Amino acid sequence: MIAFNILAHAVRAKEITGVVARYGFTDLLDQIELPAGFLQRILPRPAERLPPWVRLRMALEELGPTFIKAGQLLSMRPDALPSGLILELRKLRNTVPPVPFAEIRPILDAAFDNRPLSEIFADFDETPVAAASLAQVHFARLHEGREVAVKIQRPGLQRIVENDLAILAFLAGQIHNRISALAPYNLPSIVAEVSAGVLRELDFTHEARNQRYFNATNPQPDKVFAPEVVESLSSACVLVMERIIGRPVDDPGLDPAAARALATTGATSLFHQVLVAGFFHADPHSGNVLIAADGRLCFLDWGLAGHLTRRLRHALADLFLAAVDQDPERIVQIAADLGSPAGRADLRAMERDVTLALREDFNRAIGHVQMGRAMLKLLFIFGRNGINVTSDYSLMAKAVLSIEEVAATLDPDFDLKRAAKPVLIALQRERTGPRAVLRDTRSMLRSTLGSLRDLPGEMHRIIRRIEHDELTIKFQHQGLDDLDDALITSANRIALGFISGALIVGSSLIIAAKSPGSTSHLGTLGFVFAALIAAYVAYGIYKEGRH
């Protein structure tokens, strides 16, 4: 990511600050050290009286593709940002006006080495069927007769995104350093993570790789799938894949029985992706899920995917079961074991917050169960209490919330627990079944045998060092530094006390040896030195509080 430069970014920075001020955030700008003259040249119209998170979302939409995508990625950080902001950022619209084909044509020419489009496609529709913040989609047909969808990156987007990210990083740094109330959120690190995600999505090869991997590992290809990628025609800026003809999940003409079956299929597939495969679609909202003509569910837009290790998958299953059982103590323990504490967490306070979150969004007693929203709140509670879990957990919570909303659209009576049950059973079999026991035993034996194999050599090395008098043992006492200082101070004071007493005795003898009526200057000087030393020792004792 390029660094912020006032000369290179002046025009765009003025546009950004103008939008921020127009939506009522001038008090925030006043606390940031902006270049002189910026705010003076901005004359915004009064902002509407709307909640601050709503105004922030509207400002991001007006600022363009980079900020829309950044806001969408920020919505996947419930562990670091307030839950109200997270829910509002999820409403960001990703639809923008399409780019004229004449402007986007150079992207196609560069991707296909300036070969004529007629040589690659038998037919190409220059009118886009969809346009988003980073790309737009055109339909085409290959010479072999296959219908395809061509996803093309917007022209000049790389430079625009890099400039906007540099400005965003500068603003985040200013806010972090100058607004103490927002310092705990560590906005610079969040912006750095978001910037990496945005730049990653600009490379369509990641999306193509994710789609291929899902189709290769999908255990239910007869129920769910991802569009097949035409690898020979795809690149970093152009993605060619099969065209999916279908209808959206919110189509009112769906048969209720079929809709209920699709809701269960989609939720079961996502839970399998998360808990069993450890690779999942990170944003399966209604716009990214399509009902194909053959009745299968198609997951679109694989630009962002989550990855979970086996340990994380098992911990997540335990977390889900603890939420179902309304066990906040178990949830806090799992979070404490799983996360990386940024400080000392108050587990009792966190347990209280978790209890409240479960009662609000996962209360089976009153029939109010919103697993996705509950997971978002739990992750925010963890982060607020100094327990930072992996960012893939945030992606998972966002995915669960999205698929829960899609399933509720298809089936208002959808039960997430019922859909997750077969996947949890399969995961439990993976963890405790005969294969799992055999795998763990084999791993333990391999590790043990390796250690036993190395043991004779290690013992021989120690014996040789003993023979050559090269073996040394280092002992280091912890916490004794203060005791050492105290002993030295006490010894010094005792010595000064002896010196003072000796001076008093000696001076007394000198004065006593003089004839009556005469004065001994040496004896008087001794008394003065003795008094000074005694006063010094007394002051040191008084200063340390030992009266």
Could you walk me through the main structural features you see in this protein, from its secondary elements to its overall organization?
The chain is α+β, with helices and mostly antiparallel strands. 58% of the residues lie in helices and 10% in strands. Among the domains are: 10-93 and 158-200, no CATH class; 249-432, no CATH class; 491-543. The protein has 20 helices and 15 strands. Strands 1, 2, 3, 4 and 6 form a 5-stranded antiparallel sheet that branches. Helix 1 packs antiparallel against helix 3, helix 12 (310-324) packs antiparallel against helix 13 and helix 15 (371-384) packs antiparallel against helix 16 (391-410). The two termini are 63 Å apart.
Distance between the termini: 63 Å
Percent range for helical residues? 55-70%
Taking the sheet with the most strands, its summary is: 5 strands, antiparallel
Count every beta strand, where a strand is a DSSP E run of 2 or more residues: 15
Strand content: 5-15%
Number of helices: 20
Shape: elongated
Average pLDDT over all residues: 79
Low-confidence stretches: 38-47
Structural class: alpha+beta
Q: What value does the Rg take, in angstroms?
A: 35 Å
